[in-house]
Amino acid sequence: MNKKTLSIITLGCSKNTVDSEDLATRLHSRYNVVYGEHGNADIVVINTCGFILDAKQESIDTILQYARMKQEGEIENLFVFGCLSQRYKKELEKEIPEVDEFFGVDSLQDILNKLDCQTFTESGVARNLSTPKHYAYIKVSEGCNRMCAFCAIPYIRGRYISRPIEEIVNEVTLLAENGTTEFNLIAQDLSYYGKDIYNEYALPRLVEQLDKIEKVRWIRLHYTYPNNFPLETLKLMKRSKKICHYLDIPLQHINDRVLSKMKRGHTKQETMELLKRFREEIPDIALRTSLLVGFPGETDLAFQELVDFVKEVKFDRLGVFTYSAEEGTYSAEHYADRISQKKKDERAAKIMEIQQKISLQLNVAKIGRTYNIVIDRTEGEYFVGRTMQDSPEVDNEVLIKKAAAPHLKIGKYYDVKIIDAEEFDLYAEPCLSK
To answer: What is the rounded CA–CA span in Å between residue 211 and residue 199?
Structure first.
């Protein structure tokens, strides 16, 4: 019997990527599973994001696109799961009846049952990656205990639940044996990892165990929270050749009044001291952050303080979002959203304009230096890779002309010399073999 083709469309963050891959792994024996848009799909499953307004709109637009395809007979079945359908299941069922069924975030077994695949794939099978084979995202926990005023994640994903260290080590070992060399640890709050099951912040313990796995090459830490950041991690980073000199630490703001209204639990002084500690301990560390502008009560002076902070710290990587009042959150229920979208957009654009100049300055300083990179893909006349200090899909890329290095292979590591730079791209040539 020919297998039906099932396409999984993943929207939102890398945590959703992992959820989609878990689902694909368990469906693989019954269906021909593909990722992304696929012209010959019989069944489409959409994994949605419901974090902020723009993400919700993208999810709705995608659902409507495939609902039309189902109406026109291009696909047989359409299923939706993830954060958006967790929050708005009843509304979505009413508004988009073309969808066969909506599922929440913890409905993996329900989806399998609906797709006639009642049993999980036996353990010992490597996850069916949607990323290139050489890198993977490893979700170390689910949910979040931080009740930031603007964030809906605790209401969608629930309380923080850490995965046991042994379980994560087994998963990474299995993937490494299957050819994966780079592992990006993700959680809603990586700093809190282990507190719920070990009664201690156990990120250093976890990283130390992963560092011992022979075939692991790079370990990268994403979404660390500034409160209770486990500083022991820096010592491991300093002595390990595998732990990337990289930290993703979303700070959201720097003005004390805004931070207090956001219920972030840290102050400007504490933030500055932590960033100073990072750079003292690991001088070449690449710091990524995300900021939120237009939060209720963000005055012109408070925004200017944020601007001055970005100029002073010179983050290696930075993303910025505009505030939207999310149903059920503290800020939506207690603060009036009086800042216009126009002003929010202008503030976000100003931050990114500053960051663009900083990024160019930092990248130009890399010209003439040698870096070890991994090749992710080819694009036109270039091989496209990344350094240890760049995460997939969101950070700088290194471009090498194919004509100058036809021997390069995707997933392999090479020493290269940077010969030119732009705001978010580096150009390189391979170093001569000794």
So the answer is: 22
Mean pLDDT of the chain: 91
Rounded to 5°, angle at Cα 85 from 140 and 109: 60
Tell me if 349 is assigned to some domain. yes
Same domain membership, residue 375 and residue 348? no
Q: In Å, how far are 290, 369, 387, 406, 413 from 384, measured between CA atoms?
A: 25, 18, 11, 13, 12
- List the CATH number of the domain containing 327: 3.80.30.20
Are the beta carbons of 67 and 98 closer than 8 angstroms? yes
Q: Where are the beta strands (DSSP E) in 1-114?
A: 5-10, 32-35, 43-48, 77-82, 101-102
The model carries a pTM of 0.91
Residue 121 resides in a domain? no
Same domain for 271 and 230, yes or no, is yes
Q: pLDDT band at 155, cuts 50/70/90?
A: confident
Say how far apart CA 321 and CA 293 lie, in whole Å: 6
CA–CA separation, 175 vs 133, rounded Å? 9
In the predicted structure, residue 7 carries a pLDDT above the cut 70:
yes
Instruction: Determine how β-strand 397-401 pairs with β-strand 382-387.
Output: antiparallel
Q: DSSP letters along 143-166, please?
A: S-----TT--HHHHH-S-EEPPHH
Burial state string for 368-395 with b = 16 or more CB within 10 A and e = fewer than 16: eeebebbbbeeeeebbbbbbbbbbbeeb
pLDDT the model gives residue 51: 65
Rounded to whole angstroms, how far apart are CA atoms 271 and 72?
A: 54
Q: Could you list the residue range(s) of the whole structural domain that residue 209 is in?
A: 135-363
CA angle (152 as vertex; 53, 326 as ends), nearest 5: 40
State the chain's maximal CA–CA distance in angstroms. Answer: 67
Query: Would you say residue 182 lies in a domain?
Result: yes
227 vs 348: which has the higher pLDDT: 348
Number of H-type helices and E-type strands within the chain: 14, 18
